[in-house]
């Protein structure tokens, strides 16, 4: 029973973080009363790969190793 409650709590916290990120830093705004939270979220997101970055890296990799 406790494991289910802890899992649900973790899910709720993760969902709150996603909503907070989408509501403020993703749109370029500061989080009210806690601007350091938005800065930390932006830094964390900047470290993660995105599809655009992967496509660019893949194209550069293909150009370097093409046989043509």
Index terms:
single chain; 68 residues; mainly alpha
What does this structure look like?
It is a single chain. The longest helix has 22 residues, at 2-23. Helices cover 72% and strands 0% of the residues. It is flat and about 55 Å long. With 68 residues, the chain is an all-alpha fold.
Which helices and strands appear, and what pairs or packs with what?
Blueprint: H1 2-23, H2 35-47, H3 51-64
Q: N- to C-terminal separation?
A: 61 Å
Q: Major sheet: size, sense and barrel closure?
A: none
Q: Tell me the total number of β-strands.
A: 0
Low confidence ranges: none
Overall pLDDT metric: 77
What is the approximate shape?
Answer: flat
Summarize the structure.
The chain is built from 3 helices and no strands. By secondary structure, the chain is mostly helical.
